[in-house]
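Appendix B, example 12.
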Amino acid sequence: AVLIADVNGAAADESARRIGEQTGARVEGAETDVSSAISVEALREKADAMLGGLDILVNNAGVGHTPRPMEALDEETFDQIFAVNAKSVYLTAQAFVPALKASAASREAEGAGPGGAAILNVASTGGVSPRPGLTWYNASKGWMITATRSMAVELAPSGVRVNAINPVAGETPLLKTFMGDDTEEIRAKFLSTIPLGRFSTPADMAAAAAYLCSDDASMVTGVAMEVDGGRCV
């Protein structure tokens, strides 16, 4: 059973409908502003009612800004970046860590073996190897990587694993934001920094996320995995 949260409620519902039809799983959408404590609390209430427990939490919401000098970014955009990219992780931890601890304890009591519960944070190669002109976005993702490692250490005794993935630029609506202008020349410039020679895809990220959240990664916690075609090497 999966609950999809998005600030665009109609998009969440449509994704839930499509995935449910494709997989036969129970999938629902929830309109949620992850930068709002009130909205995240409403999400927790819906999750409790729908799922009756929680095994995996994925913090995937993120916003960026177009390339510009660090001193030229307006305060409103800065605040939005850190509200969505950083504060949301704090708010979802407040809301869902108790349920994740309970899930891990239940698995242990049932003798289900290693694995426990899992949190996955979607960070960025920008938090490891920053691109110029994206300083405040890069900083928010560096924050997420540090938060991931600290969360992993603190939650390990409770059986909750915490990992992150660091995507490289990919074919998503955020790509144009990072590039500024979507032209063949700018795309070529970006691709020249990726040794495998292509942008990432949502499927690339999903495969890495599925592994890190699965019992196959039961001994993996505190990792920020670069899914980047070699860009950070």
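Helices lie at 9-23, 37-51, 75-109, 135-155, 174-179, 184-191, 202-213. The two ends are 37 Å apart (CA to CA).
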